[in-house]
């Protein structure tokens, strides 16, 4: 059902956990299936220095969470914003058709965390 | 790696005795039972013997058995066939919220095509109220279908009582006994049923074979037209080796049922109690004790998701199933758990272990060793779980 | 006693290679292909491989294959499913007088339920006229079903031409290829078909398995409701071992077909010519040469009755079949022979020998040795035969 | 399908043949299936001295023909008239349900032959 890459990321998920006092936190729920994902970002300047996630969800949800954290670590915010759901699925070697919606969680949570970071910056400024 | 199969409610291995009998009919006695030559006649004889074995197991007459390609087809034939045959008597149908999809989807098709459908609720253990059935029956009710035992939570319904009621009111009573056959006694007379569905691959027989018991006198409009096999109820060249395998599986199940049920009940409770002991925030789904199938364990593990549980179990060789949305195509969690009033999030993390003939205490203990570690790992990953 | 099986059009033995593969999936890799654990996934993989094998054999895409419980169910699904799906486009249906009962009875059911049916005649060889098909198509025609090769007399219909016509006129074209598969090339694109029925037990695969090819874009209303297997076209736990056996049988047939057809054609003509040479008052039914299936021999033996012939052949170990009324439940002689214009009495004494993979020249010669004696004995008993 | 007795009478049918200048000949066709049976009687006084048959029909038709000839040989006409279709089927150890109609041929042909005998007697007298 799942590719080897998916199973690898499911079995040994990268960057599981929380970042206390993170610069940005994003949480999304998958309206289709009720699964939930939370992403924590540690940002220095324009760069994502550290990233962690927590996910309640299926194998694909866990694997895409893990994959997206790998993909953004060390990237600039602009680069991170460019990461699409499709890119995450592709990086995992593809997902079964009925599991494609799961990859939405990962990119959406990432983007939500970046938005949270900007909101906090605004507040700090304003 | 150790492999522990705990998904017998999904399907069972074919018993070696059954399989080797089938081989003979695949490669040597392969005649078409409708042929008059000796190849045909030896197949015909074995087919009719299988009919006796299946009938004998459920207290029916051989002539009351129609072989089908499985439980799903038998359910469809019963519901659609009777609804069509008795449509002049009325258009009201009754079933329950916890039936298998083979029943529910079929009734829903009828509800969209001129029939009226009442779907009865169940209590938090998944059990039906006989009173509720009584209240639902109307003068124009023609057909009532209730499963004997539930495939997800193992709840055994008060079918005999419901059957008595149906008979009093002149309503045709169908029972889906796919999960109960071979685990608890199934007798068409004791249960007061008019039609009853059974399936071979749930009792160590081959896949692709099932049967519908139809009490003498009950009419059915066929669903498949052709050569007129199975007394015109179900056309198509008979799956002779499969049917013979099913017959043999019934014979074996009949001989072993009492012993097996006792053993499975022991394993079931060892597993259920062991899980409750070792893992926090776990809830047993379905009734406990005699109202539960001897082989069914169903628990909800809070804060973790079912598919992740299954995948993790599979990685250590344990095969189980779940009522999780994520494991099905549909994305809705189990309609059975929802009907029992369980919130979405908790239904999401439910696990079914269904025990079988080969399972041992060691199998159970292996699960009890692995599952807590898996749950802990997944909970550490879960945003819902705060230590 | 020597046993010579010459009834391969009724059913075939399962190839030993097929049978032993199936065994593995009955007893070891027995998972339910819908389960996500490794038992389920290994079954799923094998199932999808079988889908590729079947699709590959008929030039289709795997996604266009729906597995069923046999040819009869596939025929029913095609006819009833398309008639329902396209009923708003029209209510006129066309088929031929020589179809298998799985087609004829299904169309007759529709004809009694609001559809209009044209049944095309055949000539004295059992062949259809393409012109006749053309004339029968009306603006409100939605579905046309023509068998590729006839099961009784082996007549091969001009299916590709008829398919071209159907496509021009926008009529859905279904072909029953149960008898042609494995004997002559069957390619859904060359034949211009929209739907095509095949059955496993006619090509050395297991009974109880068949498939319907449905060209991408063609709609079908399902006949069986439930778990939504086979892309919701055909619910019910998949008969995985059976389907895998069918897949393997297709692979084997594909590899062997050319050689086998040549060998069978030789045996066929040896048997047919031998009978004509040795017995008086015998008539070959169906076309000769390339328009006849390589494995079909059908003769009418005047003044004797078919069942008596079959019983007598069986007593010397020869398994054949007949178009005699007396061998069927129906009491009418073969509708195929009658449609070919044969008088009742002669249809009565018809015999079909259908050759198969294991048959040898010695088998044929054994029939040629025994049959004349049997005919003589029966004719001596016959009030119709005056020496 | 068929009992051993049926198969025995089918394989070794008794009294096959014709009686030249028979005292009575009866022929019936089975309207259901098109099978045909002819019975020849040789009658002396009230007794059936000899009987022969010819049948074009199924296994059951042949066996019942053979059986009925055995049953009437040496019997009186009155006794022969008492032989029913059911009795013939029973004497063969039963017939499959869809073959019960075949036994009609045998008793009917016998009765037709007796009628023919009476008709000839009438003619001879009158
Ligand atoms: C209660 C119940 N009914 C019906 C079915 C369908 O039977 P089958 O798998 O033979 O189609 C199943 C199993 O899948 C079942 O558990
Ligand atoms: C031409 C034809 N169509 C359909 C069928 C039915 O297929 P099955 O025996 O698999 O039900 C048969 C054989 O019985 C056949 O010969
Ligand atoms: S099914 Fe819920 S995220 Fe995959
Ligand atoms: S079927 Fe014709 S007499 Fe038996």
Automatic annotation (TrEMBL), chains A, D:
InterPro entries hit by this protein: NIF_FeS_clus_asmbl_NifU-like (IPR017787), NIF_FeS_clus_asmbl_NifU_N (IPR002871)
Domain NIF system FeS cluster assembly NifU N-terminal as annotated: residue spans: 1-123
Protein name: NIF system FeS cluster assembly, NifU-like
GO biological process annotation, one example: iron-sulfur cluster assembly
SUPFAM superfamilies assigned to the protein according to its UniProt record, in alphabetical order: SufE/NifU
Species of the source: Acididesulfobacillus acetoxydans
Cross-referenced PANTHER family: IRON-SULFUR CLUSTER ASSEMBLY ENZYME NIFU HOMOLOG (PTHR10093)
GO MF term (any one): iron-sulfur cluster binding
């Amino acid at each position: 059902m799942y590719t080897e890459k998916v199973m690898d990321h499911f079995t040994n998920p990268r960057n599981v956990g929380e970042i206390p006092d993170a610069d940005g936190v994003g949480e999304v729920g998958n309206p289709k299936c009720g699964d939930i994902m939370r992403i924590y970002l540690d940002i220095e300047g324009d760069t994502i220095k550290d990233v962690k996630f927590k996910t309640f969800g299926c194998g694909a949800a866990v694997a895409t969470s893990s994959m997206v954290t790998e993909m953004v670590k060390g990237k600039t915010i602009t680069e991170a914003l460019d990461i699409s759901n499709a890119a995450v699925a592709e990086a995992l070697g593809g997902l079964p058709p009925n599991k494609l919606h799961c990859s939405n969680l990962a990119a959406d949570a990432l983007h939500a965390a970046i938005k949270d970071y900007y909101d906090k910056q605004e507040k700090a400024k304003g | 790696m150790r492999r522990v199969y705990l998904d017998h409610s999904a399907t069972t291995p074919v018993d070696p005795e059954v399989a080797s009998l089938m081989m003979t009919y695949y490669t040597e006695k392969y005649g078409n039972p409708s042929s008059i030559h000796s190849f045909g006649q030896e197949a015909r004889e074995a087919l009719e013997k299988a009919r006796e074995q299946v009938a004998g197991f459920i207290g029916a007459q051989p002539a009351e058995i129609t072989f089908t390609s499985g439980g799903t087809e038998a359910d469809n034939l019963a519901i659609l066939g009777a609804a069509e045959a008795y449509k002049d008597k009325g258009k009201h149908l009754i079933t329950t919220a916890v039936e298998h999809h083979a029943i529910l989807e079929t009734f829903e098709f009828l509800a969209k095509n001129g029939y009226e459908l009442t779907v009865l609720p169940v209590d938090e253990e998944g059990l039906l109220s006989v009173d509720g059935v009584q209240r639902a029956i109307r003068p124009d009710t023609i057909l009532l279908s209730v499963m004997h035992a539930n495939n997800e939570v193992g709840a055994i319904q008060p079918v005999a009582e419901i059957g008595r009621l149906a008979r009093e009111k002149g309503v045709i009573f169908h029972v889906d006994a796919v999960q109960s056959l071979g685990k608890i006694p199934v007798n068409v007379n004791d249960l007061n049923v008019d039609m009853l569905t059974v399936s071979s691959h749930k009792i160590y027989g081959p896949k692709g074979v099932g049967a519908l018991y139809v009490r003498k006198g009950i009419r059915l409009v066929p669903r498949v037209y052709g050569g007129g096999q199975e007394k015109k109820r179900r056309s198509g060249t008979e799956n002779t080796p499969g049917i013979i395998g099913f017959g043999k599986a019934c014979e074996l199940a009949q001989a072993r049922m009492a012993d097996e049920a006792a053993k499975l009940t022991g394993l079931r409770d060892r597993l259920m109690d062991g899980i409750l002991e070792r893992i926090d925030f776990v809830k047993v789904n379905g009734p406990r004790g005699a109202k539960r199938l001897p082989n069914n364990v169903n628990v909800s593990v809070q804060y973790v998701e079912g598919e992740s549980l299954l995948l993790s179990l599979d990685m250590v060789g344990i095969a189980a199933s779940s009522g999780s949305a994520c494991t099905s195509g549909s994305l809705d969690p189990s309609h059975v758990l929802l009907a029992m009033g369980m919130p979405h999030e908790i239904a999401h993390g439910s696990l079914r272990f269904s025990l079988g003939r080969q399972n041992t205490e060691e199998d159970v203990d292996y699960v009890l060793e692995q599952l807590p570690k898996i749950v802990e790992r997944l909970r550490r990953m879960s945003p819902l779980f705060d230590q």
